[in-house]
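Retry 2 of 3 after timeout on previous attempt. Resubmitting structure tokens to design endpoint.
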């Protein structure tokens, strides 16, 4: 059985979606989420897809456009929009620290919020150093 959910998503600033070579403007977007009941075959599949109704281009004002993307791609774009430019990792960290179950486990393990934030900041620094090292190696290879 397939379910169709129609709703509206609001972006406060312009955004991009993967594999779509256009920056979309801020505003309201009508979406349709098509989701089917999970089966054993689909359990590890890509998940539901989302049909987004795009605004017409100024060059073609009457043209109706739609784009179908994986639900995860739209979810990432909305998360980035909520963060006003913060990295997705920061969003995940804040969501995790606001989860009561995570708080209970942290308390049971004697781990504080400062410990988790420190751990994540070290990861971010290491990722930055790793990316910078890769860039230096790539530049050296091009010379």
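Retry 2 succeeded. Sequence:
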């Amino acid at each position: 059985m397939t379910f169709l959910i129609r709703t509206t998503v609001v972006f406060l600033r312009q955004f991009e979606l993967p594999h779509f070579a256009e920056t979309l403007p801020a505003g309201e977007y009508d979406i349709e989420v098509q989701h089917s009941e999970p089966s054993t075959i689909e359990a590890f599949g890509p998940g539901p897809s989302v049909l987004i109704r795009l605004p017409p281009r100024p060059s073609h004002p009457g043209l109706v456009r739609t784009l179908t993307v994986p639900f995860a791609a739209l979810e990432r774009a909305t998360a980035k929009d909520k963060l006003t430019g913060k990295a997705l990792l920061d969003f995940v960290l804040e969501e995790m620290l606001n989860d009561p179950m995570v708080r209970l486990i942290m308390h049971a393990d004697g781990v504080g919020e400062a410990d988790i934030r420190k751990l994540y900041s070290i990861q971010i620094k290491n990722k930055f150093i790793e990316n910078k090292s890769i860039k230096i190696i790539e530049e050296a290879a091009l010379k």
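Attempt log closed. The beta strands are 2-11, 27-36, 49-54, 65-70.
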